[in-house]
């Protein structure tokens, strides 16, 4: 499924086929391969396997669902309706079955039932823009034209959002390649495009800040980090790096705050605990510094930097005086 999420559809199909070839007759392997074929829209390859599994397990909800999707794609809407209705009756809260049943019912002009299933799919968490488009068709068929217009607008808005997200992720991925190749201007340009396309994504701003850091643009880096943590306070990497920049600029209080946010977001991050301990020690908060470095050593007892800092705190007269 990871390959599908990455849109590596051909690789996903090849892997599913390879698994099935090496486990012939294994039902789980067959079902997994059928699932991949349907998800990647290889319906011609899926057809015979789907019918085979349906004959063997005629009342399995997932087999019914997958065959219902195939039936719809080949235009057999009567079979699609029957299979999807039974799938819904067996597992009522699986919104994919609800969505596909809704689309079949809309095709058959069964507006009321189509509307009910599509509304339930959306309420259950279906984020596919097509659900709103199909619901708009059902509502129009029922004469609810005002609401149909609202659903159609939501479909258009969501499609634009999805297109923007895809464009942004494509630019960010290219930025990663440029960064790895050492082409900083190209990396920065691609990251900026990603940020402009999807301005609410904190991760893209963090990626841009990393590229700016490599060019020595610390002011630009700081600006992007501040925006990133404002959007997502739990983005530990951005919190830690912002703390580092503030420490370098002499803002110890701000640095400590961001290091604390970093360890709260990522409690197992040893480097963040070390940074926090070091800055606490620099500002005379020795007890808190000791607690932080002790946490780093519990997480990584062999960490040389943590051991060095711990030894320094042990030998520091000021630290000993504050904690006799």
Structural class of the helix and strand makeup?
mainly alpha
Please summarize the sheet with the most strands. Answer: none
Unreliable spans: 1-9
At the third CATH level, what is the topology name of the largest domain? Serine Threonine Protein Phosphatase 5, Tetratricopeptide repeat
Shape: elongated
CATH superfamily of the largest domain: Tetratricopeptide repeat domain
Helix content: over 70%
The beta-strand count equals 0
CA-based gyration radius: 28 Å
Count of domain modules: 2
What is the second-level CATH architecture of the largest domain?
Alpha Horseshoe
Number of continuous helical runs: 19
Order of helices and strands: HHHHHHHHHHHHHHHHHHH
Strand residues, percent: under 5%
> What is the CA-CA span between the terminal residues?
57 Å
Query: What's the mean pLDDT score?
Result: 89
Just give the CATH class of the largest domain.
Mainly Alpha
Description:
The chain folds into 2 domains: 2-159, Serine Threonine Protein Phosphatase 5, Tetratricopeptide repeat; 255-324, Tetratricopeptide repeat domain (Serine Threonine Protein Phosphatase 5, Tetratricopeptide repeat, Alpha Horseshoe). It has 19 helices and no strands. It has helices at 2-5, 9-22, 27-39, 43-56, 61-73, 77-90, 95-107, 111-123, 129-141, 145-181, 184-197, 202-214, 218-231, 236-249, 252-265, 270-282, 286-299, 304-315, 317-322. Helix 2 (9-22) packs antiparallel against helix 3 (27-39), helix 8 runs antiparallel to helix 9 and helix 17 packs antiparallel against helix 18 (304-315).
